Amino acid sequence: MTDDRTPSATAADGFPTGSGGHDPEVLRQRALDALLTARARTTALTDSVDEGELTAQHSPLMSPLVWDLAHIGNQEEQWLLRAVGGREALRPEIDGLYDAFEHPRAARPSLPLLAPTEARMYASDVRGRALDILEAAPLHEGGRPLERAGFAFGMIAQHEQQHDETMLITHQLRSGPVALTAPAPPEPTDAASLPAEVLVPGGPFTMGTSAEPWALDNERPAHQREVAAFHLDTAPVTCGAYRRFMADGGYTDPRWWAPEGWDMVREHGLEAPLFWHRDGGQWLRRRFGVTEPVPDDEPVLHVSWYEADAYARWAGRRLPTEAEWEKAARHDPATGRSLRYPWGDTDPTPEQANLGQRHLRPARAGAYPAGRAPSGAGQLIGDVWEWTSSDFLPYPGFVAFPYREYSEVFFGPGHKVLRGGSFAVDQVACRGTFRNWDLPVRRQIFSGFRTARDA
Fold first, then answer.
1. 355 and 221 share a domain?
2. pTM across the whole model
3. Torsion sign across C-alpha atoms 437, 442, 443, 449
């Protein structure tokens, strides 16, 4: 989930099927709640630092926070005010500045960006007009593609939350004083009694969706997949387990690494996950400005696909495929159905998943028993994005909507799929079918993994 997936674009013809049966007024309220929740989070992330911190580039990997703020407003203007509402452009002269495809992140500080006060005013002005449009928009079945089931409003709420996650990554990368705080996640109650792995039976299941009204194009359409039986870790791989890989020479033995991963290790002198450092005989990590001991029973975070793959090889296992992950997370063998979430079809609660920046860290392995899937696997939603072995590819019958640049231009072997979301993801942008993708070298993202083996 990065800001490089949201270019200026014109809506394409066609709408994903399966949005019928949703009450327009329920969807209208849902869209309003999602937009307001996203804006409250954006405000918290940008008001927590001063103007100098907003305009600084804290890492060449990321945009200045003020760029994200105005980009959020610009995308909302283009899709909700212009495309849905038919309004005249408010600030057409800034479209190019906030086109993620036109300017790489490292170059954005040199652009004539809106200053923080102006960016806030612009985003606020756009939002007020967008809410007027939402109030009057006909969200019924058979309406215009972008309006149907409130898709455009859901898309923009998801877009803003994706940028909120991007801005939270920037907060993690910044070196200034502590700006964000949050309570610790709940402790697991039965972690000691959980099996190390679960068996997921073989057979067909329904992957993807044709019914989720705000599902994005790469999640569609629903289709049958055949998956052989396999074993899957009950919880994500922990820091303690990963430290055993490190202690056994994991970063010095090329046997475990894909060639490109081994090149990365040697080029950058890697010896641990990002933000870890050794102090005498102890491993410490930096987390949102706080330095603390690495907790052994918390899912490992900030590892690349290459590191996850190397650990799995060292452990005599492998990363699960994307289809295996989704079957473990969604398939209910008692009914043969694929659920929206591991626990069922209802939206997440704080008792089921670590989402929405409620906590600024993953919960310890074995937490959230109410969120476990029928397979027995837990923490499949929230906590850490989980690398899979799969390349990011379209599903059979894929149709780009509403623009090619959200998904289609990223399909291919260059990007690996991550599933499940993290503590930094809001529920509007996280579900059992949601697909994230990134380059296999990425480490600054809130990524972890779990391993699998053939049955």
1. yes
2. 0.94
3. positive
